[in-house]
Amino acid sequence: MTTEETGIDLLINTTEFSKQDYYELLRNNGYVKKYTSYLVNFQKLINDGKVHRIGRNKYCTKKKEYRSYSHLYSDESVKIADCIKSNHPFADFVIFETVQLNEFLNHQIGKNTIFVYVDIDVADFVYETLNTELSGMVMLSPKPKEFHQYRSENTVVISRLISESPKNTDILWQISLEKMLVDVIADRLVRETFSESEYSNIFDTAFERYIIDESKLIRYAGRRNAVSKIRNYIDKPEVTNDK
Q1: SS3 136
Q2: Helix locations, the chain, DSSP H
Q3: β-strands 155-160, 138-140: how paired?
Q4: What pLDDT shows up at residue 243?
Q5: Distance between CA 8 and CA 113 in Å, rounded?
Q6: What does the alpha-carbon distance between residue 193 and residue 94 come to, in Å, rounded to a whole number?
Q7: Fewest Cβ atoms closer than 10 Å to its Cβ: which of 14, 31, 36, 214?
Q8: Would strands 52-55 and 113-118 be described as parallel, antiparallel, or unpaired?
Q9: Angle at CA 237, nearest 5°, toward 188 and 50?
């Protein structure tokens, strides 16, 4: 009997497909489960890495042509990372700069803001260090009004690093794509730096270009109470009739 997993062999010559496409293919080859049950098992295929999301309701079975996300950080961000490592060698921190989003946006960000996510226990110490070592503006967990009032080019914002944040596998202080995609929705200050109308383009472009661990993405979204919002941008509602 054809199952969700064995049916993958039927997709060998298919470059991309939707959930509905695969369901119909299975049904035409003896699959008998209802669509609601199929969706649960389809998600398991994604979690197990046997099916990959490459866009909104677009999937493939192989992602050899896709690459891991990386970003060439600005000199300012590299200087900040070196400063923290030298003065606080045991601090766990991640740096995100808003110009990273320009790859995914229609309207480019001109004024770069550097977000430093750091363990709450050392946030005050890191703030004091950077405030002493850097010539620009450094803010510690500012309110939106303060953020907008004083933000300038390469302003540094120190925020709390959420526990269990997805890690970059190469350079630990550089942000992972999974964390970045959640933070652009869940971090209020990051949201202030671009238009909400750009969300669809951010997520569509990210999934079309890069390998994304969806289980990490959703798990971290859960930590930030943003699962439903993330789902709005990575899932396209479908209407189908069970047969």
Answers
A1: coil
A2: 19-27, 35-47, 75-87, 123-133, 144-150, 177-186, 188-191, 199-209, 214-223, 227-234
A3: parallel
A4: 46
A5: 44
A6: 19
A7: 36
A8: unpaired
A9: 90
Among residues 87, 147, 143, 95, which one has the least CA distance to residue 116? 95
Helix extents (H) in 88-155: 123-133, 144-150
Closest by CA position to 6, among listed 33, 31, 40, 35: 31
- Residue listed under structure tokens 């490459």: 54
Phi, psi (5° rounding) for residue 4? -60, -35
Write the pLDDT tens digit of every residue in 113-162: 999 999 999 999 999 999 999 877 999 999 999 998 988 889 999 999 99
What SS3 state is found at 39? helix
Q: Which residue has the tokens 């996510």?
A: 117
* Overall size of the chain counted in residues: 243
**Residue 69 CB neighbours (<10 A):** 20
Which one, of 221, 240, 220, 238, lies nearest residue 229 by Cα? 221
231 CB contacts (<8 Å, ≥6 apart)?
none
Q: How far apart are CA 4 and CA 171, in angstroms?
A: 37
Are the C-beta atoms of residues 134 and 128 closer than 8 Å to each other? no
The overall longest dimension of the chain from CA atoms, in Å, is 69
Tokens 């944040």 sit on residue? 165
- The string of pLDDT tens digits covering residues 158-182 is 999 998 899 998 899 999 999 999 9
Contact between 182 and 216 under an 8 Å Cβ cutoff? The reply is no
